[in-house]
Amino acid sequence: MIVQLIKLIRIPQWIKNLFILVPLVFSLNLFQRDYFFLALLGFITFCFTTSIVYIINDIIDAEADRAHPTKKNRPIASGKISPMQGILFAILLLVIVIILCLRLKPAFIMLLGLYFLINLLYSLKLKHVVLLDIFSIAAGFLIRVLAGAVLISVAVSSWLILTTMFISLFLAVMKRHSELVLVSDDSTSTTRKVLAYYSINFTDQIATVAAAGVIICYALYTLAERTISVFKTESLIYTTPFVVFGIFRYMFLVYMNKQGENTTQILLTDIPMISTVVLYVLTTLMIIYFHF
User: Fold this and answer.
1) Torsion on CA atoms 52, 58, 59, 62, rounded to nearest 10
2) In CATH, what class is 1-155?
């Protein structure tokens, strides 16, 4: 039972909540103890909230998941956890979230509530509406960044917000592309209804635009007058190759290796991708905190 409950909350997916820490890093407060622990508390609160969303989604999609080649193994779809047990566990997590929120700012709590509402609507309706499905996913990442900013009372660069929007749209549409390929390769596979409104060519075009948006917006962020003024260096531009390589590597894995349905799995298992992320983080920290 414990093992199935752990699977139910999808701990590997918590990696997405690291977007909450983006404002902490780029506000030069990463090594400030009070800021760090406040951001960490916000991260943990978001992790439990996202797990509640996953449980609700698994209950709603249980029947459809049973027809999916991999999702059929999820705890509720496989019958190892009953819907009622899932609901009770979600309520327990909700109580924990409420307790944690007592120590967090009202603005953060409002954004947390907005995230939950959008994802609830996504599970019930929006994931069946073409384009709104991927924009709903993108909204979740944007809310994480904004929540991280209000949590420690710092402003976020507009270019950084745009970069977040484009990278989340990119990941969402690449996931749709992978699902379309899965359907085309296995005609017996049943996945999302919204895929009927997409085509591989259409998702490819959106992915190209989103990928270009990520690279351009991030490059402009590194060159922005405000960025140079805050960090007192123009060297952040040298982190752009890592971003470009990361985008291209992800596209390679999706288009050539037919991966991409599980973003987290790619980020946690592909050695070149892991190396790129680690090198990007280290280089960024060295530039903005130690002025290399």
Assistant:
1) 180
2) mainly alpha
